[in-house]
């Protein structure tokens, strides 16, 4: 294998590929990136056995072939080369070394044969649709902060993607995430050909890698899925992930229907006030108390170790006076997703789940569990 490639093109692709590779691996080949050179292209791939990524980039090839090399080390070498440099990659089958040359720089890396590189069997993926990049980006951003990191409830460690009906009865593609303390739900227009799609749970790591990729891409992304795997196809990149094998809970039972106390408040002022007042809250509880009265919201924190903090804001509210406590970080996470000027907070009492809505975005809905303060 022998090829020449422009440093920036190689660096960009390696950045995508090495991101999937775990820093610590008990299986040496999983630390490596697969490099295959053919027909004017360098094809690269990496996997952790649950998630696989492949990408093709143009290169000036003089000898076809392939090998695997340490992903993070190769990425660091290319990253430290000067801008605009040409990089030569060369490997001869009997050497077990990949030679990297650029200008006066020379590196050799220990290699493992490409035949040892594991291939994720994809099987048949009968459900195929296309989704605009902007819609997928919004779905991820509006939900992934609520994905659980608690490994015991593994079925909450991802975004639940499924077909549902919205409040008006329209069919939508819906993403839901919850960690038991908060829930985020986002609806987008249902793409064509999705009526038979099964509900699937996309793992947290796959969601993170996908979010990085959609930032650099415009146009539609092709999504193919079965009951066990999902694949996202961009122009030159394919990301394939196993799905979480579990049943996502019936989240509709957590979304309250009887909440009758409605507050509307400037979302930016609210977020900034929560941020300021919560400076006093303890790292462990992060609790903040909201006291609502007609036309007014008072935020307060009382910490035995740190002291007290209090701030008042004007709000549109005319129901009975009430007090309720929240985890300030969870509240901030939701408020950071509100794009409109106003956030609507729909409450029942100090022990019931509270709904938050962005008044400019019908597709997004958030539920936050209260806490004692």
Number of strands: 25
Mean pLDDT: 95
- Which residue ranges are poorly predicted, with pLDDT under 50 across at least 5 consecutive positions? none
Query: If classified by CATH, what would the architecture of the largest domain be?
Result: Roll
Strand order of the largest sheet: 6-2-3-4-17-16-15-10
Q: Bin the helical content.
A: 10-25%
What shape does the CA trace take?
elongated
CATH fold-type name of the largest domain: DNA Polymerase III, Chain A, domain 2
Assembly status? single chain
- Main sheet properties: 8 strands, antiparallel
CATH superfamily of the largest domain: DNA Polymerase III, subunit A, domain 2
Outline:
The protein has 373 residues and is α+β, with helices and mostly antiparallel strands.
What can you see in these coordinates?
The chain has 373 residues and is an alpha+beta fold. The chain folds into 3 domains: 2-116, DNA Polymerase III, subunit A, domain 2 (DNA Polymerase III, Chain A, domain 2); 127-253, DNA Polymerase III, subunit A, domain 2 (DNA Polymerase III, Chain A, domain 2), CATH 3.10.150.10; 261-368, DNA Polymerase III, Chain A, domain 2. Helices cover 17% and strands 42% of the residues. It contains 6 helices and 25 strands. It has helices spanning 7-18, 71-80, 133-143, 204-214, 267-277, 328-335, and strands at residues 2-6, 32-38, 41-47, 51-58, 60-63, 65-70, 86-91, 97-102, 105-110, 127-132, 158-165, 171-178, 182-189, 200-203, 220-225, 229-233, 237-242, 261-266, 287-293, 296-303, 307-314, 322-327, 342-347, 354-358, 364-368. Strands 6-2-3-4-17-16-15-10 form an 8-stranded antiparallel sheet. Helix 1 (7-18) packs antiparallel against helix 2 and helix 5 (267-277) packs antiparallel against helix 6. It is elongated.
């Amino acid at each position: 294998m022998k090829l020449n490639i422009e440093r920036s093109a190689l660096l960009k692709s390696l950045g995508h590929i090495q991101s999937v590779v775990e820093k610590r691996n008990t299986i040496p080949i999983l630390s490596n990136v697969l490099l295959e050179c053919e027909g004017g292209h360098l094809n690269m791939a990496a996997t952790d056995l649950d998630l696989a990524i492949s990408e093709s980039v143009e290169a000036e090839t003089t000898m076809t072939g392939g090998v695997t090399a340490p992903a993070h080390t190769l990425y660091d070498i290319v990253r430290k080369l000067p801008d605009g440099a040409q990089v030569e990659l060369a490997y001869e089958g009997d050497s077990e070394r990949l030679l990297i040359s650029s200008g006066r720089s020379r590196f050799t890396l220990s290699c493992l044969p490409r035949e040892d590189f594991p291939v994720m069997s994809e099987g048949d993926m009968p459900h195929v649709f296309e989704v605009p990049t902007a819609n997928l980006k919004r779905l991820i951003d509006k939900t992934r902060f609520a994905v659980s990191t608690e490994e015991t409830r593994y079925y909450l460690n991802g975004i639940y993607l499924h077909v549902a009906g919205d409040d008006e009865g329209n069919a939508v593609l819906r993403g839901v995430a919850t960690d038991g303390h908060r829930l985020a739900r986002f609806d987008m227009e249902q793409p064509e050909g999705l009526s038979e799609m099964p509900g699937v749970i996309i793992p947290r790591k796959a969601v993170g890698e996908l979010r990085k990729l959609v930032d650099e891409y415009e146009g539609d992304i092709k999504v193919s899925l079965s009951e066990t795997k999902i694949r996202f196809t961009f122009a030159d990149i394919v990301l394939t992930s196993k799905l979480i094998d579990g049943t996502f809970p019936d989240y509709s039972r957590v979304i309250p229907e009887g909440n009758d106390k409605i507050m509307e408040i400037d979302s930016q002022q609210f977020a900034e006030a929560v941020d300021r007042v919560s400076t006093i809250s303890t790292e462990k509880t992060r609790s903040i108390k909201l006291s609502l009265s007609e036309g007014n919201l008072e935020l307060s924190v009382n910490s035995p170790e740190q002291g007290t903090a209090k701030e008042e804001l004007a709000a549109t509210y005319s129901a009975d006076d009430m007090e309720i406590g929240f985890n300030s970080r969870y509240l901030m996470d939701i408020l950071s997703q509100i794009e409109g000027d106003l956030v609507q907070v729909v409450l029942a009492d100090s022990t019931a789940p509270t709904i938050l809505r962005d008044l400019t975005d019908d597709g997004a809905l958030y539920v936050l569990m209260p806490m004692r303060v």
